[in-house]
Amino acid sequence: MVERLVIDRIGHRGDGVVEGGAEPIFVFGALPGETVEVEDIAGHPDRRQLLRVDTPSAERMAPICPHFGICGGCAVQHWQTEHYRAWKRGLVVTTLRQAGIEAPVGDLIDAHGGGRRRAVFHARRGGRDILEVGFSAARAHHVIPIDRCPVLAQNLDCALQAAWAIAEVLVPAKKPLDIQVTATDTGLDVDVRGSGALSASLTAALARVAGAHNLARLTRHSELVAQQRAPTLRIGKATVSLPPATFLQATAAGETALAQLALAHCAGAKAVADLFSGIGPFALRLAESARVVAVDADEAALAALKRAAATVTGLKPVEVARRDLFKNPFVNEDLDDFDAVLFDPPRQGAQAQSSALAASDVPVIVAVSCNPATFARDIRILIDGGYQLTAVTPVDQFRYSAHVEIVARLQK
What we know:
It is built from nine helices and 23 strands. It is of the alpha/beta class.
């Protein structure tokens, strides 16, 4: 059924939202104040497909990518920057308020920088058995084939060509494929997932692709296929040799912005616990002025961090500890010697660790998060344990999307 609607606001995923009915209605691609023509989407009673904008908003702008609205990677390329930035900061403000937390939320920091330095491309056989390599479609499961993406960093320019070449070798087996590409200081680091076991001939073919596209390293499910150079990344004064498929912040500017905020909040601390440390984007910088204990469940990441720290003169001691902080969080007896604790968990947050920290006497806690909902939950736990939230800063390294990073400082 075709109908006309007036959009009231932008929702937390970037959709236009129509209020006033029994349930809100969501329209991707629509902006506040616009009158739009839409139709039903089968199986989604709360969603509508945008057919036409009858009355455009003055805030509307032309998207920078021809795939916008079809590719599922970006949500709000069509919205003018100042309104987009206010909305993204508002995601943090609103989520905190809903958790009963009134806090001083700073201005949104733009950390897009040169663009995203990592991407996961999907490769599938589509209709008529045609190979498709690109990103997942918006609100659907098929792949949108692309030849470029304007939100990626320039040093990922060759990544798509390499991904297509890898897919041409492996996808004829009709197994869905995910190709994770990371731009490092020494070239592209590629990890392939979903291919199934590799025969000797397929391994040789992939090695030829790696050579032809000058890949630093090519792995399958983190197992080495070919390497021309060790993929490395400069973090502070250290050079880290990256484990395959390791986690990195999406942009180099994002990592720097988060680290600068965290270090400022830890200023003066002599001993810091870096929980969920990964390869050390915080720990290696903190160690320039404080003793650091870096804790994570990822053994390869901790080994890379430890090796990197050992090569730098002038750092304070860096100790690593392997620990599953979801099941076995740091508690009082682990925390007695620290002036500050920093934690940067995955999207599910750190509920158990926050509860343990809430019962501690650590003077300063720095919370870093990529999920406002779990961030608000964890901060609520800390506040209820006697901590005061003194600063909250949103950081935007996922431009045009609904994702936002947060750095906060709490004190007791």
